[in-house]
Design brief:
- This is Secreted protein.
- Keywords: Signal.
- It comes from Micromonospora noduli.
- This protein has one helix and eight strands.
- The protein is globular and about 40 Å long.
- By secondary structure, it is mainly β.
- It starts with a helix and ends with a strand.
- The protein has one domain: Sandwich (Immunoglobulin-like), CATH 2.60.40.
Length: about 150
């Protein structure tokens, strides 16, 4: 009788373990595509801005977990704001200006990124949301593994 109960308990442990292994890793955790790019301001001798792609994270405060968003950060008190641009598969999707001053960040969700999409993100210093020319930019391009 003891052997039978032990065998039943052991088979239950294996069944629970197999279920946890099969369902314990959500699809969004398969690969972390996070990426970022910073821009240096030679005149002010500081990091002017930063754009970051977050594959999966908290997003805007109170919004809960979110998939695929960008953060445009102004990181230098140089008198300029920063402009982020996002391209997916060679197409400009959107731009976002952050004129909030040094230390400010804007969370931005311009597009859903899918597996194998090629994402290019630019960060530029800018003097307003419509200022697209005349300021330095830095860019990073990457291919999303799992979207």
């Amino acid at each position: 009788m003891k052997v039978r109960r032990f065998g039943l308990k052991l088979s239950m442990v294996f069944a629970v373990t197999a279920a946890l292994v099969a369902t314990g890793s959500p699809a969004f955790a398969a690969h972390n595509d996070n990426s970022d790019m910073t821009l240096w301001d030679d005149n002010a001798s500081c990091q002017a801005g930063r754009i970051a792609f977050v594959d999966y994270g908290e997003g805007a405060p109170g919004g809960g977990m979110n998939d695929d968003y960008f953060i445009v950060s102004d990181t230098c008190a140089n008198g300029d704001g920063v402009l982020g641009r996002v391209y997916v598969n060679g197409v400009l999707i959107d731009t976002r200006y952050n004129g909030g001053g040094s230390g400010s960040s804007v969370i931005w969700d311009p597009a859903q990124v899918y597996a194998n999409d090629v994402v290019r993100m630019d960060i530029c210093t800018a003097n307003g949301p419509e200022d697209y020319l005349g300021y330095p930019c830095a860019s990073r391009t990457f291919r999303s593994v799992d979207g």
